[in-house]
């Protein structure tokens, strides 16, 4: 039973004024609640949103429901945090409002708002004082009241909290309270914009009639969708779950003659699971299970239950125009409502409540957003594509009028095409380098599912007038190609894993999407009937699976592609991907624009070092995987991700100091990768730790990795910090022990990670071990154990200007290993705080990481390279070279969680010896002869290398 007697204590001054709790109105009307004018207030069991009763207010014109409170003093700060939350049941839609007024000691109104009564059923009433009306001059509130409209009627109140001391920041504007949150005017928020979008109108006219071709296209799309969603047999598990949940819901008609009573349905933020309260996922469980049983088994009881649940959900607030207090992330809990509504569409069309069902489906799918093109500044697109694109599509296809289907589908395709533009800054979507952004960063974990869903839409609309634009599909292709490049076979490296360090991979639906986009047309510009490159990638990724698309591609002569080969630059993620044969290396740093790791309350608690210059090799397993390559969580030392330079902390200090989310960005901007001819590359970073609790803010280092064929040269200088309690180290490797010892022969400076990769340390004190390790689980902090082979370079406690140099040979042949143990394949030309410069003898490449302005006295080509620049070159002919220049800095002006501010161009001026010319003119490259030197001016943007061919005259 709920306790309402606290109000009396409140009035007696026994409870502090700021105290508040949920009032459920179970036993009697609280003494603080009285009626002025004609009317009555009483406890009622006709409707309830908590417990088994609510507060019924029967009103007459001009009457008020008055509530006395202990004095509440507001100020500029708590005015934003404090507010009121409750639910109101209205039996019949009206065109008027209930006015809430908050009074000062003199009885004057300081704050007020109007709550619209345009919908029937339970609707939330959540609003902070910040978004209320009124002069707000006297901020000391002693009472509040509800003012009745100018008519006779009644409403029911439940789940009242006043004052709510910490208003939900994601409070959602809706038909009842359209101005209860300023986030609705923020471009970067999307869940709470559903009512704002509802005010939009289509600028695509409704056709007066459809041509026979349009009708045929719609039928084709309808059949494709049906073929995709239908299964051979009704799944019994979901059906059983529907009946079990339905029993707990205890839905029955109210004796009032309209509406229902039963288990409350609220948003997860409000849900009390201990009381058995339900949320959107329970609606999904019931509707989807009953739909399967009704559709496949023609079960009339399930059909009846389906519509009972739908009616109840609408009555509880899952309805058109309702935000349910807060609706954030609802898309993840409603997807099967839509896929199974498609199966039930004929029954829905025949139902007397058809319009209510369809308007609910459209509203919660946010189909209304697609009445206009996608805003260029729209954020968090991956969430929308992943969770609501199918819902939007099904809602568009469920208009009973084919003309409205065509209009909605045209709007949706236009919206999706426009949303697939390359997005600016760090807002969500696809970047020019193919990386996909969520939470303001490069996030493969949120990309899976997105590729699948957009790929499915491409397949549904392929060959029709509703298909996506070619530009949109090309942008999607770039995201597919990027994922192909940074996954091996299906999995990505820990450095780019976000808050799931040992999780995430391409799923079968993502792989099938490669075929879907390939079949949408040749995006390579070669004029074929389909994209043969993507088709070859698809055949590689499905391995031996026999699918209709695989059979078609093979019939067309397509062979499975080889694994990606080369070096791939992804500086929107401060990352580089180095690949040969079947192995892959992920190199990762971070900057002022790129966060280093995502840490949540219950995710990735020890993930601080993911981007401290990690160099992770994934090259073993069938197929290749993290685990197959020796990376498993049980016993994993979170201080020792390969390649990183870290302070080796105990786990209680490594655990994020923030209880909530940590997404630390660097104080430096020079971190990322570059390449030459797409085959070889480099990575460099200025490492600088942030000033947080248990961090060491003066911890700095300069790191580089030079990647040639199957060799990596790793250099470090300036490793310094003041932490005298714990040692600083650079990890060579940490892999699950597989019986192979780390030492190679009697040489302590040649090591082996057990997975066919060899390490030669040239500078540094080496430590190696095979040990049973005790660690902590990244989510639960529970103890985990495992046996690992590890090696690292020890820099000591509180190092000053520490250095290292080592070479990694990735899966060399026996002859390669023997040769390179005798004769080094590279030469370090400079290794200090100014620059790291390496010459590779086998490829002939010289690569420069210029941390500061670099003016070499004896360089064959360069007189000067500006600070924070990566340069690579190799001879292309007797007088010609291939040269690349890169500044990985995205150069985004605004530094915040996400920004729509774009990457700005950066000009680099490089001086070369002699008179050089470009073999072909380039827009972003300019040459000027100055005496015996050539001034090369390169404009860099988006962190992308600028590559050119030059000749020395």
TrEMBL record:
Q: Which GO terms describe its molecular function?
A: carbohydrate binding; chondroitin-sulfate-ABC endolyase activity; metal ion binding
Q: Which GO terms describe its cellular component?
A: extracellular region; periplasmic space
Give cofactor(s), names only: Ca(2+)
Which positions fall inside the Lyase catalytic domain? Answer: 205-546
| Oligomer status and interactors | Monomer.
User: Which residues make up the binding site for Ca(2+)?
Assistant: 26, 158
Q: Which Pfam families match?
A: Lyase_8, Lyase_8_C, Lyase_catalyt, Lyase_N
Q: Which PANTHER family match?
A: CHONDROITIN SULFATE ABC EXOLYASE, PTHR37322
Query: Entry's SUPFAM superfamilies?
Result: Chondroitin AC/alginate lyase, Galactose mutarotase-like, Galactose-binding domain-like, Hyaluronate lyase-like, C-terminal domain
Q: Which InterPro entries match?
A: Chondroitin_ABC_lyase (IPR039174), Chondroitin_lyas (IPR008929), Chondroitinase_ABC_I (IPR024200), Gal_mutarotase_sf_dom (IPR011013), Galactose-bd-like_sf (IPR008979), GH-type_carb-bd (IPR014718), Lyase_8-like_C (IPR011071), Lyase_8_C (IPR004103)
Sorted keywords for this record are:
Calcium, Lyase, Metal-binding, Signal
Gene3D superfamilies (UniProt xref) = 2.70.98.10, Chondroitin AC/alginate lyase, Galactose-binding lectin, Polysaccharide lyase family 8-like, C-terminal
Protein name per UniProt? Chondroitinase
* Residues forming the catalytic site: 329, 439, 446
Asked if the keyword Calcium belongs to this entry, the reply reads yes
